[in-house]
Amino acid sequence: MTSDPHRADLGKDPSRVSGMFDEVAPAYDRTNTVLSLGNDKLWRVATTRAIAPRPGQRILDLAAGTGASSVALAASGAEVVAADFSPGMIAEGERRHGGVKNLSFVEADATALPFEDDAFDAVTISFGLRNVNEPKKALAEMLRVTAPGGRLVICEFSHPRSPVFAGLYRFYNDRVLPVVARTMSSNAAAYDYLNESIRDWPDQTTLSAWLREAGWSTVAHRDLTFGIVALHRARKPLVAPVG
Fold first, then answer.
1. So where does S-adenosyl-L-methionine get bound (predicted)?
2. What is the pLDDT along the chain (243 residues), one digit of tens a residue?
3. Residue ranges of the binding site
4. Annotated binding-site positions for S-adenosyl-L-methionine
5. How many CB atoms lie within 10 A of CB 161?
6. What is the rounded CA–CA span in Å between residue 241 and residue 55?
7. What does the angle CA 183 – CA 185 – CA 188 come to, to the nearest 5 degrees?
8. Distances (CA, A) of 235 to 104, 121, 158
9. Hey, how many other C-beta atoms are within 10 angstroms of the C-beta on 62?
10. What domains are defined for the chain?
């Protein structure tokens, strides 16, 4: 367990992770754009297209942070619930986007969602699943609240398949990212955790296996930016498995 009270560690204690995100909330989106070299916006567009929101749908956007991804979904006319377990992120999201039509903000734990069964046509989570201390439990909860036939879209950091690109990516994360984070963020230590959590997170194939294990069907993924990020997609079966 880290002794620094301003950052989480790989134990992913919910109160420490939540507190860390509370602290970085005001500058979070701007810092992410700089650290990702602008790719975060491209990843968000790819995720929105995979969700394919439509008017009349109800969509749960988990780990929504300040709601940047949720706003894009709500623009389609879908009813969007932006959920995050960081009160600071929710407060910042409401400050920025509280007046957006069809968008509401809810504080929620991904492992114990405060929603009824089959409540959403689609559930999505971007760059948040690896911060959950029990990700398999979260995948089961997402299945519970998704309507039969509904979709799940996960955008998460992953592992480049090319050894050469993987080496360059490690160099950037280990040497460049910490320097930029110290310049941009009010809590540079949080980005040390970011680095650790990316290295510790399973690869594309393993996460796909977790999805199937949780009960999701038609599981598929595609790499974005050479595998730095993977976009995972799945559906809730129309008929619950027997037994």
1. 66, 84, 109-110, 126
2. 344 444 445 556 677 666 666 666 666 666 667 667 788 889 999 999 999 999 999 999 999 988 999 999 999 999 999 999 989 989 999 999 999 999 999 999 999 999 999 999 999 999 999 989 999 999 999 999 999 999 999 999 999 989 998 898 888 888 887 777 777 666 666 667 777 888 889 999 999 999 999 999 999 999 999 999 999 999 999 976 665
3. 66, 84, 109-110, 126
4. 66, 84, 109-110, 126
5. 12
6. 30
7. 85
8. 24, 10, 21
9. 26
10. 14-235 (3.40.50.150)
DSSP H/E element including 233: strand 229-235
- Residues 102, 25, 104: CA angle, nearest 5 degrees: 15
Q: Edge-to-edge, what's the strand order for the sheet holding 79-84?
A: 103-107, 79-84, 58-62, 120-126, 146-157, 229-235, 217-224
Residues in the chain: 243
Contact 41, 19 (CB under 8 A): no
State the Cα–Cα distance between residues 13 and 24, nearest whole angstrom: 17
For the record, the structure tokens of 122 come out as 């689609």
Predicted model pTM: 0.86
